[in-house]
Specification:
The structure is a single chain. By secondary structure, the protein is mainly beta. It has one helix spanning 2-22, and strands spanning 30-34, 44-48, 50-51, 61-66, 76-83, 90-97, 105-116, 133-140, 146-149, 152-155, 171-174, 185-190, 195-198, 205-213, 218-232. The strands form three sheets. Strands 1, 4, 5, 7, 12, 13 and 15 form a seven-stranded antiparallel β-sheet that branches. It has a five-stranded antiparallel β-sheet with strand order 2-6-14-8-11, with no helix packed on it. The chain has a three-stranded antiparallel β-sheet with strand order 3-10-9, with no helix packed on it. It is globular, with a radius of gyration of 21 Å. This is Lipoprotein.
Length: 233
């Protein structure tokens, strides 16, 4: 009799666990806040929109680094840096979101804080290092990947070009930190309208934040915080 009772209890626990697993997928908003204090929090970096002949000239670097002076150097941020040799370099970070409802439409919004040292009214080769470098943020049901087309590296999803974004990857503004700025300071950029995107069959989305550059020089930025809210439409 005891064995029967234990079997029934185990079956109830298994059924309960299964029911709970069915309820894991959230209907409420999913908020991701990455402050990069101790890790990159699942974000990875990449660059596209340049020629294969320029591979050795891009000077691409990324990773967890201390904030630059005069900011608080005891705190870390996600640094990303490259030299735009193509007059069209796209430098970005991405992260996957899981546990969503498969094939359901979501609204995504971003609030981003980054450190920039580039003046809005600055001048540079090809364009301003401040107002000719455009910050974009968006979402995709497929992973945004660096792909090779002929002798060019391109992004696998549509993100527009420089000052022009796309429906899934709109422009949030430029990286200008103010008039006559010469030192790093923290700036904030946010989406103006929610981005509408459908999760894939596995209940996943990819988040993307990057800069589309018309400035033909070295750009080094520090993402201090990326907040994304993913909510069922």
């Amino acid at each position: 009799m005891k064995q029967v009772k234990w079997a029934v209890a185990a079956l109830c626990l298994w059924i309960g666990a299964a029911c709970q697993n069915d309820d894991v997928t959230p209907d409420g908003p999913v908020t991701i806040t990455s402050d990069f204090k101790t890790s990159t929090d699942g974000w990875t970096a990449e660059i596209t929109d340049y020629s294969t002949e320029q591979d050795a000239l891009i000077e691409f670097q990324s990773g967890l680094k201390a904030l630059p002076a005069p900011l608080d150097s005891t705190k870390k941020a996600f640094m990303i840096s490259s030299h735009n040799r193509s007059d069209d370099l796209f430098m970005f970070v991405k992260r996957k979101v899981t546990g969503l409802r498969p094939n359901q439409t979501y609204k995504v919004t971003f609030d981003i804080e980054l450190a920039s040292q580039y003046a809005t009214n600055s001048l540079g080769i090809g364009g301003s290092p401040g107002n000719s470098v455009f910050l974009k943020a968006g979402a995709s049901a497929t992973e945004p990947k660096k792909i090779k087309e002929g002798n060019e590296y391109r992004l696998s999803i549509d993100k527009g070009n420089q000052a022009e974004g796309s429906d899934a990857v709109p422009v949030l503004g430029n990286i200008g930190a103010g008039e006559d700025v010469t030192q790093y300071k923290l700036i904030q950029r946010s989406t103006q309208q929610p981005i509408t995107i459908k999760a894939n069959d596995a209940g996943e989305l990819w988040l993307l934040v990057g800069t589309d550059s018309g400035f033909e020089g070295l750009t080094t930025l520090y993402y201090n915080r990326i907040k994304a809210v993913v909510e069922l439409q």
